[in-house]
Design brief:
By secondary structure, the protein is mainly β. The chain contains 3 helices and 12 strands. The strands form 3 sheets. A 6-stranded antiparallel barrel has the order 1-2-7-6-3-8. Strands 9-12-11-10 form a 4-stranded mixed beta sheet. A two-stranded antiparallel ribbon has the order 4-5. It is globular, with a radius of gyration of 21 Å. It binds S-adenosyl-L-homocysteine.
Length: 260
């Protein structure tokens, strides 16, 4: 009998959130966030997801790989409490936990099975006339996620409303979704950049609006005005914004890192 367990990663997340800053604090808040979960290794098999398409939402259990190396402490300061009150780690959804395991309910939009060809056999060898080996990839298209790009997934479970919704539950200090009255406006340069990438990123504007209306600034800055120019990464874009007054964020620039 041992006190440790080994988990196998069953898939990896592709997410528009390329860094921790500005990721919403829970799933379901930013509905314009879309991503994919690519199954890997022996889990990359259509049989494992047979029947899953009947469910609108799934639980993802994952590893907080981006903060794992920083360890954990018994007490943490939830941003929800302004970042100045300490609670036990198990009374919070902090990423710094004894086991770096996260859980999120996300929307399951589609399950895709793609055929890909891997490698190429040399002409004249015993391969299939140079066509390479056929393999398939299972991709779960998901949305409303709160996950960093590259997040390793260790389990998927269907969301079952009768068991998972508890109408009478008490949510303690986090009973309600944080309210926000922040309005997001765009400079003409930012609007032009959005128009230029609209074909490939039709939801980018809504994503920026929804992410910023959560006020992603550090907890100690919330409810206060500052004139700092903030930056965040979404997809391959670097986005700069600044506060105009206590209820308005102005998106100054949207730069495409790939086409620079
Ligand atoms: N819904 C999850 C996560 C809540 S914490 C749970 O309750 O367990 C949400 C924060 O996790 C986000 O703000 C983001 O910054 C962070 N996060 C998401 N994916 C992560 C990852 N792979 N590594 C480290 N932090 C991550």
């Amino acid at each position: 009998m041992t006190n440790s367990v080994n988990l196998n990663v069953i898939g990896t997340i592709n997410s528009p959130y390329k860094q921790k800053f500005a990721i919403p604090r829970q799933p379901g808040i930013v509905t314009a966030a879309q991503g994919q979960l690519r199954l890997t290794g022996s889990a990359n098999n259509a049989e494992l997801v047979r029947g899953l398409e009947q469910f609108s939402h799934i639980w993802l259990l994952f590893i907080f790989h981006g903060t794992q190396a920083q360890g954990w402490k018994p007490l943490v300061r939830p941003p929800r409490l302004g970042g100045n009150k300490k609670l036990g780690v198990f009374a919070t959804r902090s990423t710094f936990r004894p086991n770096p395991i996260g859980m999120s309910v996300v929307k399951l939009d589609q399950i895709e099975l793609c055929s890909t060809r891997q490698g190429f056999t040399e002409p004249g060898s015993t391969g299939q006339h140079g066509t390479g080996q056929k393999s398939s990839q299972v991709i779960l298209h998901i949305s409303e996620l709160d996950l960093l790009d590259g997040t390793p997934i260790v389990d998927i479970k269907p969301y079952i409303p009768y068991a998972d919704i508890i109408e009478s539950a008490h949510g303690g200090y986090a009973q309600e979704q944080p309210s926000s009255n922040i309005k997001v406006i765009f400079s003409s340069a930012a609007l032009l950049a959005l128009a230029n990438c609209n074909q490939h990123y039709p939801t980018l504007q809504s994503l920026i609006e929804q992410v910023l209306s959560q006020d992603p600034r550090p907890a100690y800055k919330q409810q206060s005005i500052d004139d700092k120019i903030y930056g965040m990464s979404l997809y391959n874009f670097n986005i700069n914004w600044q506060m105009l007054d206590n209820a308005t964020f102005n998106v100054i620039a949207i730069d495409d890192n790939v086409n620079q």
